[in-house]
């Protein structure tokens, strides 16, 4: 493995949680000179001060065109910057874009030094996406449970049912209508709201 | 007919309309194309996703595929242009402070580029004499019609875009805010991002693309070359659908429907009323209402024909401003990027009016002119540059030499 001065890495990501996850990954891998920037205001001056070797930018960033042109044109960056490190390495470029991350690397760095950084960014971006998806699912599940609870409450009040009777009725209706339990519950809650019987 | 699935990227800008209408109105479907539209957040993303094959085709800035094929982009892949998305649609807006300065130096109002440009130059000289920093203008991308027409306008009216002003990149949706906050003094961008500033009262439209270079090229359909070679029939089918979509977009009776469609959250997510100046050319410049001829043409005047002379003019500007060194080989790459042959091939079965040539002398037509064409009649032009110069694609070297001398003189 080649050695040399520690790589200076700049992560530009409006998503602070994701940026922290990437930072943690890079630190775990022995990169301690990592800077996070959540927005691009005054970015040229920051880059001039930091002189990063590798800049990681998320693909959702609407300022990517501005950043790229700055990397290529301004005096803020002393050495030319290329996207990724090896144009011929199409597999890792594809993996990065699929993960939603781009990386810009200053000229003259050996690719074996930079590749692990980019690979780490890809892994962490993918991990974040997975986590965000799971969180979304969990949130959806929680919402569903709340709706079913409200529907049960409406039935218990309006029909004098027990909780388990209310649940059985919802389940039976869902099965008969070939619909999801939560959809039946949502229908009941909406109807009750419209008829002014909500808020139970 | 079995369906060809085509993945298309677009930026939320009005001139993606032709692509969106082809999908939304079922015109692609009628040609057996399952058109999947993907909204993107930057031109860099569009370029990257075309390069790795996520997109087969995309809404692109006219010079972008030329720059890509010349290796000027961080990631490049062979991209061709068999269809143009339209002509015109951009304006140059300036802050109220700059407009006041321009008026003090004789700007008469209206959109005349020479009068506005000369007033701007006098204001710039006054600022320089006072030791004030250069004005900062923004464009959307280095390889854009916006960048090249802004520079052409400035240079043609006396300002040196390399020395007298600073030109930076700002994404279109942020332009109006950047101007209002004083981070930039002016910008060149497509509608509705100029009208947004006028409505906010934070600036004024100083001139328009349709006056700097009449009927000039703007966005195009960029196609991954490997896709075009592998799926020629699918691409032809898509081009026919886009042709019909463009004609629908041009029809005045459809303006309201088109504005409503583009206003939807999945597209521009802005009020339909703001989309109307683009479609009518009826512009509020900021306290002055004007009607601009041929402000934006999605279909008329052979707007969809990918003229090789357009590709070569973009190339001439890349050379002029130092993006690339001129060589015969590079000029050939630029010419080979625009593919009128594919446009002709796709539209032949429709009996549509087609230009007789693949290239034209830009700036030669001073008025709308019926031209000899196959099939039905066709009207071209006017296509003049505001400074009266002419771009003859067969005299590229002379044109480059002329502007190089001109730009050198401006240093004294």
UniProtKB/TrEMBL annotation, chain A:
- ANTAR domain spans which residues? 128-189
Pfam families, alphabetized: ANTAR, Response_reg
| Annotated ranges, domain Response regulatory | 8-122
Phosphoprotein keyword on record: yes
For whether the record's keyword set contains Phosphoprotein, the answer is yes
* Keywords in alphabetical order: Phosphoprotein
PROSITE patterns of this UniProt entry? ANTAR (PS50921), RESPONSE_REGULATORY (PS50110)
**4-aspartylphosphate modifications at:** 58
User: Can you say what this protein is called?
Assistant: ANTAR domain-containing response regulator
Automatic annotation (TrEMBL), chain B:
* CDD domains xrefs: PBP2_NrtA_CpmA_like
Q: Which Gene3D superfamilies match?
A: Periplasmic binding protein-like II (3.40.190.10)
- Major site of localization recorded for this protein: membrane
Q: Which UniProt keywords apply?
A: Cell inner membrane, Cell membrane, Membrane, Transport
Q: Does the keyword Zinc-finger apply?
A: no
List where in the cell it is found: Endomembrane system
Q: What is the name attached to this protein's record?
A: CmpA/NrtA family ABC transporter substrate-binding protein
Q: Which organism is it from?
A: Aquibium pacificus
């Amino acid at each position: 493995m080649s050695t040399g001065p520690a790589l200076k890495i700049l992560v530009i990501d409006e998503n602070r949680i994701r940026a922290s996850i990437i930072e943690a990954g890079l630190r775990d891998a022995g990169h301690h000179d990592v800077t996070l920037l959540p927005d691009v205001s005054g970015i040229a001056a920051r880059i001039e001060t930091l002189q990063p070797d590798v800049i990681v930018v998320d693909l959702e960033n609407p300022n990517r065109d501005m950043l790229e042109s700055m990397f290529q044109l301004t005096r803020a960056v002393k050495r030319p910057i290329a996207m990724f490190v090896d144009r011929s390495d199409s597999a890792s470029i594809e993996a990065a874009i699929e993960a939603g991350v781009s990386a810009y690397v200053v000229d003259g760095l050996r690719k074996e030094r930079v590749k692990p950084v980019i690979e780490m960014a890809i892994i962490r971006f993918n991990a974040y996406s997975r986590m965000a998806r799971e969180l979304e699912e969990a949130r959806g599940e929680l919402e569903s449970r709340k709706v079913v609870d409200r529907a049960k409450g409406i039935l218990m009040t309006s029909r004098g049912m027990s909780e388990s009777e209310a649940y059985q009725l919802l389940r039976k209706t869902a099965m008969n209508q070939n619909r999801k339990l939560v959809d039946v519950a949502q229908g009941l809650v909406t109807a009750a709201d419209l008829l002014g019987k909500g808020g139970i | 007919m079995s369906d060809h699935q085509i993945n298309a990227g677009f930026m939320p800008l009005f001139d993606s309309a032709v692509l969106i209408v082809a999908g939304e109105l079922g015109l692609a479907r009628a040609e057996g194309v399952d058109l999947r539209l993907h909204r993107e957040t930057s031109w860099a993303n569009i370029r990257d996703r075309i390069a790795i094959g996520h997109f087969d085709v995309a809404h692109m800035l006219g010079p972008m595929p030329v720059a890509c094929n010349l290796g000027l982009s961080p990631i490049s892949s062979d991209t061709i242009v068999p269809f143009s998305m339209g002509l015109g649609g951009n304006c140059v807006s300036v802050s109220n402070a700059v407009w006041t300065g321009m008026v003090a130096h004789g700007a008469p109002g209206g959109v005349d580029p020479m009068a506005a440009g000369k007033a701007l130059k006098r204001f710039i000289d006054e600022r320089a004499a006072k030791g004030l920093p250069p004005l900062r203008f923004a464009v959307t991308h280095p390889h854009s019609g916006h960048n090249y027409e802004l520079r052409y306008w400035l240079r043609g009216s006396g300002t040196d875009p390399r020395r007298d002003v600073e030109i930076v990149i700002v994404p279109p949706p942020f332009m109006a805010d950047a101007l209002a906050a004083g981070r930039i003094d002016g910008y060149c961008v497509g509608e509705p991002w100029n009208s947004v500033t006028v409505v906010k009262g934070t600036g004024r439209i100083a001139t328009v693309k349709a006056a700097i270079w009449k009927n000039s090229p703007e966005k195009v359909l960029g196609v991954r070359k490997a896709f075009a070679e592998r799926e020629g029939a699918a691409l032809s089918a898509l081009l026919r659908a886009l042709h019909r979509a463009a004609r629908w977009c041009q029809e005045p009776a459809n303006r309201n429907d088109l504005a409503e469609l583009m206003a939807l959250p999945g597209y521009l997510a802005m009020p339909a009323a703001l989309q109307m100046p683009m479609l009518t050319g009826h512009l509020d410049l900021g306290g002055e209402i004007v009607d601009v001829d041929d402000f934006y043409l999605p279909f008329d005047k052979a707007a969809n024909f990918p003229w090789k002379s357009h590709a070569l003019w973009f190339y001439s500007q890349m050379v002029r401003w130092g993006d690339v060194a001129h060589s015969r080989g590079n000029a050939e790459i630029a010419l080979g990027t625009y593919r009128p042959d594919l446009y002709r091939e796709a539209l032949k079965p429709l009996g549509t009016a087609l230009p007789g040539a693949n290239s034209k002398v830009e700036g030669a037509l001073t008025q709308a002119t019926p031209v000899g064409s196959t099939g039905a009649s066709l009207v071209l032009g006017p296509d003049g540059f505001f400074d009266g110069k002419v771009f003859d694609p067969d005299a590229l070297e002379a044109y480059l030499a002329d502007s190089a001398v001109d730009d050198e003189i401006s240093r004294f």
